[in-house]
# Entry
Amino acid sequence: MPIYLYLDRRTFIHRLHPAVKILTIVGIFWSVYWVDNPISLLPIAVLLLAGAQLTRAWPNFYSLRWLFILVIFATTLTWIVFYRQGKPLVHLGPLFVSRASLEYGFGRGIKLAELLATSVLFLSTTKVEEFAFGLAEMGVPYRVGFAITLAFRLVPLFIDSALTVVQAQRLRGYDFDSGSLMTRVRRYVPVTVPVFMGALRKANNMAMALEARGFGYSARPTSYVHYEMRTVDVMMLLGVIVLAVAYFLIYYSGYGAIAPR
Amino acid sequence: MSELRSMWGNTRMVVLSAISAALYAAVLVPFKVVPLIPGVTELRPANAIPVVCSFLFGPAAAWGAAIGNMIGDFFGGVGPADIFGFFANIVYGYVPYKVWQVLARGQEPVIRSPATAVKYTVACLLASTFCADIVGWGENLLALRPFLMLGNAIVFNNMLAAMLLSPFLLAAIYPRVKAGHLLYEDVMPEQQGAAAWTAPLGLILLVVGVFGAWTAGNLISTGYWTPHALPASMTQPPYDRAIGIVVTPLVAVAVLGLGLM
# Structure
């Protein structure tokens, strides 16, 4: 199971300034937020598909295809139950289907799928270090950025460590596979303990190593990685601002809404 | 709540928050494929980790829970609602420690008597419900999903892990961490003053805010309760405005309570 979605493709989107990438996802989230109508969401869907093609991120979209389908399906179904507006086409108990509830539910499903697609594109084109650098550029303290980066780096180590313990226990005849789901989950408790303790044993050494290297000496430490703001970054930022304003205007003019019928 | 900020000045606490986050994410990610409500939430035995870490590392666990959840979200895609998820997980990792400080200061969080079991359950229930309140409120405020859906799924998920897994983990890990002098009170002894005189009042406000928000959110999002003081335009599905006006002050009361503890 892949933990990171990053794909090393070296496209111009990959080379964008990390802070610009973070602001781009904020801009897309903002734009998607204002409209409910599935047709109003279509231009963003086209932009995201173009982004997937440009960054050659299709393998990630393919591996998450079921998540996209589930998000659209479950959200549409949820709002069919909860959005009781308009003239009913079907009304059976909690099920209330009207043209408005269908449009609203489907719009929400598409909206969530677009948010998911935006984040997949972001993660396909951004390394963890870039994300931490982008956060630092936006004013997040470097210690928080460091904790995020360190946590990302430790996840595969802990998963590997857990798998090693599971294999060792299996060799000793420990049965992880029989019983109910809850019973099986509880059998993993003894696996978690050595992983936990192994991790905590590292904590002291890690803290000493960090302090020996001057961690915490300065509130504004220097960084090995550095990204310059280039013309393409400014163009991208302007494009996102135009998109965000356009979508707010769509909302303001009432075109993005769904009127109960 | 100042310790949530001051802990970043201690390198060991920074490392412990990264380790808590990585442990949480390491269990969270493999279970992403076991949906509880398809497209909405998955079975999360990993939710046992923030509770365990909370009793061990206090504020470091709070940040660890938030960062770990963010790593989990990165695996399956992020959205604007994940900002609420971030803060909800801070609360989920912070409340058990704070409530324990008021109810059972100086006692070990290992269940050895019915009285300890009751205190432990209260701490976990408050943390789980507060976490659910923030996510359910946030998602309904953005009109992405009704409060009822996440507000209840999260309480169930969190309590299941906190009651069935965390006590066993704590029983195995707490004595070892204590012996290794890695408990929060050992790492930052300067933060361990007497309990604030406002702590009992804080706990009362926390209880009122948490359960008030949960009840109001459920009743409004299902349409069982219409706040008649609000204009009719605000009490229509998806109930985002009604949730915003009624539930927001209750969430604020809970946050105030936590601050006073």
Summary: The two ends of chain A are 46 Å apart (CA to CA). Chain A touches chain B through 72 residues (CB under 8 Å). Chain A has ten helices and two strands. Chain A has two domains: 18-133+228-253, 141-212.
